[in-house]
């Protein structure tokens, strides 16, 4: 069973040292970028320098350094889904030494009244994916440890937000009416595909994660609304919020 996969008693056979050698210590704070348009905007707007490179069989993912208001911040364009996003977070930490990761992406809203016009700061995430069970004891939800710290930063910045539970799923096309209803009854405001796994990995390796979401599409028992998804995916507003958070963590 997937719930039997957390093993703290024995050592992993594969190590990042096998692929990348010894870890580097170049920079402390890193943005995890999901949007190709936000990624392109960073490259076009700031002086960016490659400080690391993650190698996959289907290509390479560069890690860049930029300077924002006097602070050096790293960033890279991640993949979608819990397993790839979490694995790349670990590789980035190894390659550049980052210990603080700021992650922001889009999500589906399960409660349009609570999420409309506000960013979502998840407090817990339902573990509807497989990756997190290799990095944390089996539980239904994983705590998002820095949620209240991030909410306090948002209060200081005047960023409209709402705190609440999130649902991480691996199966975009199996968000059924029954499951949407069940997660909503449990207090989930949003659904996305990465957070539970990334948080579990960060907890396991002693990294700090600061995550917030922007609702785009809406999932309700009455139907699905996709109109707001593109804007939520590629909203430059959350990029600059993320950069301001980077100054404060």
Keywords:
alpha/beta; Rossmann fold
Describe the structure.
- This protein has 249 residues and is an alpha/beta fold.
- It has a single domain, classed as Nucleoside phosphorylase domain (Rossmann fold, 3-Layer(aba) Sandwich), CATH 3.40.50.1580.
- The protein is 34% helix and 33% strand.
- It contains nine helices and eleven strands.
- It has helices at residues 16-20, 36-45, 82-96, 112-115, 147-157, 177-185, 195-205, 229-234, 236-248; strands at 29-33, 49-56, 59-68, 71-77, 100-109, 119-128, 141-143, 161-169, 188-192, 208-220, 223-225.
- Strands 5-9-8-6-10 form a five-stranded mixed β-barrel, surrounded by four helices.
- A hairpin with a 2-residue loop joins strand 10 and strand 11 (223-225).
- Helix 3 (82-96) runs parallel beside helix 7 (195-205).
- The longest helix has 15 residues, at 82-96.
- It starts with 15 loop residues before the first helix and ends with a helix.
- The mean pLDDT is 96.
Spell out the blueprint of helices and strands.
Blueprint: H1 16-20, E1 29-33, H2 36-45, E2 49-56, E3 59-68, E4 71-77, H3 82-96, E5 100-109, H4 112-115, E6 119-128, E7 141-143, H5 147-157, E8 161-169, H6 177-185, E9 188-192, H7 195-205, E10 208-220, E11 223-225, H8 229-234, H9 236-248
Helix pairs in contact: 3-7
């Amino acid at each position: 069973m997937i719930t039997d996969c957390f093993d703290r008693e024995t050592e992993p056979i594969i190590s990042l040292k096998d692929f990348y050698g010894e870890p580097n210590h170049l920079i402390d704070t890193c943005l995890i970028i999901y949007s190709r348009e936000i990624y392109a905007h960073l490259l076009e707007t700031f002086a960016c320098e490659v400080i690391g490179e993650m190698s996959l069989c289907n290509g390479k993912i560069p890690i860049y350094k930029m300077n924002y208001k006097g602070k050096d911040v790293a960033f890279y364009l991640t993949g979608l889904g819990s397993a790839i996003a979490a694995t790349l977070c670990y590789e980035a930490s190894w390659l550049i030494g980052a210990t603080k990761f700021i992650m922001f992406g889009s999500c589906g809203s399960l409660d349009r009244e609570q999420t409309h016009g506000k960013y979502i700061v998840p407090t817990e995430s339902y573990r509807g994916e497989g990756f997190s069970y290799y990095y944390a004891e089996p539980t239904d939800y994983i705590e998002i440890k820095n949620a209240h710290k991030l909410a306090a930063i948002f209060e200081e910045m005047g960023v409209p937000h709402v705190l609440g539970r999130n649902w991480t799923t691996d199966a975009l096309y199996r968000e059924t009416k029954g499951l949407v209803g069940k997660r909503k009854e449990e207090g989930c405001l949003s659904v996305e595909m990465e957070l539970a796994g990334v948080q579990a990995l960060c907890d396991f390796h002693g990294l700090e994660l600061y995550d917030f979401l922007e609702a785009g599409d809406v999932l309700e028992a009455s139907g699905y609304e996709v109109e707001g998804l593109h804007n939520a995916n590629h909203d430059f507003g959350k990029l600059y919020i993320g950069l301001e958070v980077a100054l404060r963590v």
